[in-house]
Design a protein that fits this description.
The structure is a single chain. By secondary structure, this protein is of the alpha+beta class. The protein folds into two domains: about 160 residues, no CATH class; about 170 residues, 2-Layer Sandwich (Beta-Lactamase). About 45% of the residues lie in helices and about 20% in strands. The protein is built from 13 helices and eleven strands. The strands form two sheets. It has a six-stranded antiparallel β-sheet with strand order 8-7-6-11-10-9, sandwiched between helices. It has a five-stranded antiparallel β-sheet with strand order 1-5-2-3-4. β10 and β11 form a beta hairpin. α6 packs across α9 and α8 packs antiparallel against α9. About 35% of the residues are buried.
Length: about 375
């Protein structure tokens, strides 16, 4: 099934989520005021992406990194003139100047850079053609890059892209003069009282950074990504489950050390009614911190996420319209580090529930307006 539309109506994050969840294979092409771009998906993972909205190509990236010499790069350009269908990375590989491992490493960085840039686009058209992984005829770019053998998770790219943009916006919002003034004021206050500056808690600093983004989310999927992104600042791994009438279903994750973690998590479906532990958390609608109680359902869940049984977990219910619609499970299993303060995350999840209610209400109003149209 083809997917065609405009970015004004369907955000890039939603498109990536649809293609990821559906494990789609094909090419997504985008045209907008910023330029042209494409991303190739295989089984829901991104294996190639390019845009003319950023400078240079992978070949130039290799040159800047000192991995190839000027003479080799120029030779590659000459060969490309005679073989325009071949990309510079393919030519450099044929010349024996780089190996596949180097190209994979540079391509991963390249894909991240492309996706981060595309997240800025607010206008343009898109088209996804399933089972067609050849972007040559659809978009005119100077070079089509290199295709990864093992693709990248769209969820990871979206979360990291949001984090990069958030850090950039924070940096841009404070001028050098303002920053200097703040630092001088803090230093003089500390000297007067003979005290050292107190480091701000992770959950509070993340709350400050992400609350503004939560005020105007573009979609429900963006809300879930913000929750996972916030939690990843505090915990080493986490899973977001959607709560249905009788079961919980895996929706997203971070930090899991298992093969194809996003696919594995989305395959989890547990009837929480059979777990007194999970059922109690959902019915009480309050965060839980402590030892996870062992039963058939929690045992199945821990087997899926791997790593054994943690000494301490925290589970946050996401409430919208008076009922629990999602559960966020978090732990520090990889190091066994004690879980710290989480009040900031709890506040954020409460706000996320309100944002979700607002998003659902807007969607219902839009549907009512469409039905009312002649």
């Amino acid at each position: 099934m083809s997917l065609v539309g405009r970015l004004e109506d369907l955000a890039l994050s939603d498109i990536f989520q649809i293609l990821s969840i559906g494990k789609k294979t094909g090419t997504l092409v985008l045209w907008g005021s910023h330029g042209n771009a494409f991303a190739v998906f295989k089984n829901g993972l991104v294996v190639r992406a390019e845009t003319d909205d950023i400078d240079g190509t992978i070949g130039e990236d290799l040159l800047r990194a000192g991995l190839i010499k000027d003479t080799i790069f120029n030779l590659g350009l000459e060969v490309k003139k005679k073989l325009p269908a071949k990309s510079i990375p393919e030519i450099l590989l044929d010349l024996g100047s780089v190996n596949k491992e180097t190209l994979d490493k540079m391509t991963r960085k390249r894909i991240e850079k492309v996706v981060y840039q595309l997240l800025v686009w607010q206008d343009g058209s898109f088209q996804f053609e399933p089972d067609d992984t050849n972007p040559e005829e659809k978009v005119k770019l100077t070079d089509l890059g290199w295709e990864l053998l093992k693709g990248m998770s769209p969820e990871y790219l979206l979360m990291e892209g949001a984090r990069v943009h958030d850090e950039a916006s924070q940096t841009a919002s404070v001028t050098t003069e303002e920053l200097t003034g703040i630092q001088e004021d803090e230093t003089s206050w500390e000297e007067d009282w003979g005290m050292q500056p107190q480091e701000e808690r992770k959950d509070i600093s993340s709350l400050r950074a992400l609350t503004q983004e939560l005020r105007f989310p573009n979609s429900t999927s963006e809300i879930t990504l913000l929750i996972l992104r916030f939690a990843s600042e505090i915990f080493q791994r986490g899973i977001l489950f959607m709560v249905g009438d009788n079961e919980i279903v895996g929706l997203g994750q971070f930090g899991l050390d298992i093969e194809k973690p996003d696919e594995r998590i989305r395959e989890i479906m547990l009837p929480y009614e059979k777990s007194s532990f999970l059922k109690k958390i959902i019915s009480e609608k309050r965060p839980y911190n402590g030892i996870i109680e062992k039963d058939k359902m929690t045992d199945s869940m821990m087997n899926e996420i791997g790593g054994g049984w943690p000494d301490e977990v925290t589970i946050f219910p996401l409430i919208a319209e008076g009922k629990v619609v999602a559960l966020l499970y978090c732990d520090n299993m990889s190091t066994g580090e004690k879980i710290g303060e989480t009040e900031g995350l709890e506040i954020f999840i409460d706000q996320a529930g309100l944002a979700l209610e607002k998003s659902l209400l807007q969607r219902r109003l839009q549907e009512m307006q469409k039905k009312a149209e002649p």
